[in-house]
């Protein structure tokens, strides 16, 4: 029974701003005390003092600084953000340029985008508990393959512009025209794509020309990029140009549009080697720039050079069909500076939304939508022609560009003024031209308004009359009309009723282990709470419905939110300026390295190109360095896991003349606070280098120390780790960079207003999900964030302490403490029992847990990061599972189990094992699937047995198998 408080007191209780902090942080005060006692620490501050080197602890004055954010309640924060959001003006957008309004089907909005079962999962590195999103991504690949007419597709890239840059890099890798260093960019491509590709080329040291497409024949190139339909909406055949480039051993990439491809002959049919673009208009809000999934497809013979993740078909130990990520040896986490790309986090959640959109509508529905969009464009074109307006494009799918007059009613200024009054955005970045792109949301009424805007009132045209005149007209040249089928696989032709769709989405969700089931203690990935309050604003129309290139005065709410977030992040990082443009951590690394390079160049140091990277670094670090044309020199780590200072001193001195920077992660990926971080920064600075601190481990720094305070010059922040953006099953993410003032002039530029210097298609990256981090910081306040960091460290140390008697902790720092994560060493066990880290990872699934990070940064280990959000009971459950697994390993060691027949090597166990009449293993079925009481109460069933990776790579299939093959 709770006692009734006086009203004034209970009112203030209702508005307790500490409440969210206590909900975000898993262990309550009593549990924290218990854990501290286990560790022999008296308080959180005491634990931090034991753990974090004194010379990097922020002084008390910093903790109490005036600008400190104070925590607020969920109600207040959401009300504040709503007020900010309402300053955004939602005009009807006809800007096009790769971003289109659309209708997110509500069944997808609620059950995918707003559903933690989909948005809190991680990249499917444990495929046995990820068959749902793997299936969905395979569907996505199939959709892209069908529409582009190519043979293999990846499971998304970050945006269209970076996909184009990846295509250029791929052309360079695979072109047989080895003598050429020139990449051709047709000048009728979206400006942001040109900017990002040119920037990438400058960094790689490739030459580029930007000229009319037909000029490609005048150049000896290793590759060329065209756009179809082009940025003005024109549709013309590039078939002959493609052939000419290929005859000269160059590769051709074509940027394109999925909806247009339902009506147009595919790039594959035209002979293209690569097709890429933005899948956004398939049901994903514009979000002022993102997140959206870029697609990327190529020919089968080029598959080993493909960037990004590819989902492939394999089989499990029972011979059943099973999916997993294929050909991983192309990727940064294995190939490092020799990887095809630095991409790690991509856009899985958005790729899934897009393919669900295609599944929901089916090929006929998409055809209907596309024909309607095309018809609206045709009506509009006819109206313009009837009034003597000159069209820039004589063929079209959805976009019409027209000439404006110098003065009078048809001048650009007057049209734009009328547009503004009618709350309509037209494309206005072209000299003496205006562009209008249509989409599935355009209505007859919209069209009538638009005609008044463009032609001025009193034009005397009626949409109805124009509509009947446009019957049978398409704007698409007959020889480019699509004649081939697409999306004929059953999955695209089954789930058209909402009931079926809902159940299909749910059936896939059920196969996946996400944070709404249990802890995902992936070290380095920071799988913390993604609070519901943080997620809610993402789908507010005030944030969703803004085109990335609207005039700034329509996005005041966005900029207030982003400026505020930027200020908070400046404080938290100890830097001077933030760029929100990079839309993943790896992209942030690349942007940061460009800033370093340009800074050196501004001082005449064009030769500084050496990047020191400790051997423990994440794979994206060397892969990004390579993209900035830096030479990677590996610095050794000592047997305690710390950077070997002698080696660093020696290499920095030896290479001083050409030293560009060091890329270092702090706390190190070994999970310890290195004592010598200040010295490391000093050594590099003394030799003229800059310090890039990888911010992925900021969860161990926030409000306790900071990169700027330690002496670093630039970092990216993984907002999808430390700052609560969910991982989405492999994206989206945001990787803004913070820099000291001397690097600020060299941060990314605006992708449309400038010609080079952008790293993403959209000026503020995936702007809409910045709201998540904004809400998180507003809810926590500085003190709450500090508490979160402390408890993250507490949870990790408690975990380490309790696991240590059973598994050796590989590295510890001062006073035997770990940072926010710890590595358990399984190599001794492997030597004594034959049981591997993989067996343990898979056995954890039987216990209801996703495995920790496996074999990174050290092979044969697991790296555990509980985060502050996991409550003590869950941490204890995990520890109990690990102890129980240790006992099972004992039984292998002692010979009670053979190495061939034990619950570890056969893990994970499925319902197929449960009903196996031939079960004759050395352990019971009950022990197989219900090893603990907790699993009986809340069982997660993996849907496949252990998957055969090698088989999948040897027999590569990256499209949807027929339904029959599942039954076989
Ligand atoms: C996650 C991570 C990255 C890469 O970030 P993405 O957002 O996945 O590109 C880089 N470094 C470290 C240490 C990481 O953990």
UniProtKB/TrEMBL annotation:
PTM-bearing positions, type N6-(pyridoxal phosphate)lysine: 721
Catalytic activity: N(6)-[(R)-lipoyl]-L-lysyl-[glycine-cleavage complex H protein] + glycine + H(+) = N(6)-[(R)-S(8)-aminomethyldihydrolipoyl]-L-lysyl-[glycine-cleavage complex H protein] + CO2
UniProt-listed NCBIfam families: gcvP, PRK04366.1
Protein name, UniProt field: Glycine dehydrogenase (decarboxylating)
The keyword NAD belongs to this UniProt entry's keyword annotation: no
Enzyme Commission number(s) of this protein: 1.4.4.2
Gene responsible for this protein: gcvP
Its job: The glycine cleavage system catalyzes the degradation of glycine. The P protein binds the alpha-amino group of glycine through its pyridoxal phosphate cofactor; CO(2) is released and the remaining methylamine moiety is then transferred to the lipoamide cofactor of the H protein.
UniProt keyword list: Oxidoreductase, Pyridoxal phosphate
Needed co-factor(s): pyridoxal 5'-phosphate
InterPro entries recorded: GcvP, GDC-P_C, GDC-P_N, GDC_P, PyrdxlP-dep_Trfase, PyrdxlP-dep_Trfase_major, PyrdxlP-dep_Trfase_small
Highest taxon listed in the record's lineage: Bacteria
